[in-house]
Amino acid sequence: MKIGVSSYSFNKYRRESGCSYADICRIAKEIGFDAIEFIGLDAKDPIAEAKNIRAVCAELGLEISAYTIGADLMKDDFDATRAQLHRDLAIAKALGAPLMRHDVCYSLPEGKSWQDAVAVMAPRIREITEYAESMGIRTCSENHGYIFQDSERVKALIDAVDHPNYRWLVDLGNFLCADEDPLSAVKVAAPYAIHVHAKDFLYKLRGDCVPPTGFFGTRGGNYLRGTIVGHGVVPVDACMAILKAQGYSGTLSLEFEGMEDNLPALKAGYAYLRAVAESLA
């Protein structure tokens, strides 16, 4: 597997240092990452920024693995959502990303179930991925956003879309947001995987405690806090073994959202993932 990193993982460092996207590309290469993905380019002219990033990465020999954006396919005004996704795909194309991840929804209309949402969203997602395919880009969605976080729900959505250009961005940690065991969930997700996020969490049962600083709630009322990959409760190594056994050979992209010092956390996470990958080789 290639070991990559998300630009999202540098958020804390970017805020503190004011560095550019080009700067984090250089840092990622220095740490040893094989690839980098970008999340929603924060620029006045995202197409121009994407082209600049692409040139920098080509010079560094750093692969661009994906472009990651938000989306709500349950909005009534699908025309506006479609137009936004087409603009995002143009950015992904300028970036040279072979893959674009889009979210699916963040809430359900009153009285509607997640199964109802699948029926609404599947044809819309199929339309978007067919457009993306014409541009040479594959699309995927992640177990993310609370509503479609469980493996059962994401699998049902992908099966309903029923298009080979649309697959799963498997986030190893995010299943915990729905209080689902990551190992069991990855076994469901692995056959659909086209991209993988390596993320780790500290996990605290709710009990009667006050939410600790830095933690957020799971759907079941427990608490999570992001941490250095390899330091938390997510069985990252065992999940990687499942993916490898299923034949996954794509990028494992590190996502860090912890309270620890940013760059040392990325270096430690990279070293851990590289060691696990080499042990599985």
Total count of helical runs of at least 4 residues: 9
Q: What is the CATH architecture descriptor?
A: Alpha-Beta Barrel
Poorly predicted ranges (pLDDT <50, ≥5 residues)? none
Question: How are the strands of the biggest sheet laid out side by side?
Answer: 1-2-3-4-5-6-7-11
Strand content: 15-25%
Per the CATH scheme, the topology name is: TIM Barrel
Helix and strand content put the structural class at: alpha/beta
Radius of gyration: 18 Å
Number of strands: 11
The shape is globular
Number of structural units classed as domains = 1
Q: What is the share of helical residues?
A: 40-55%
Multimeric status of the protein: single chain
CATH superfamily caption? Divalent-metal-dependent TIM barrel enzymes
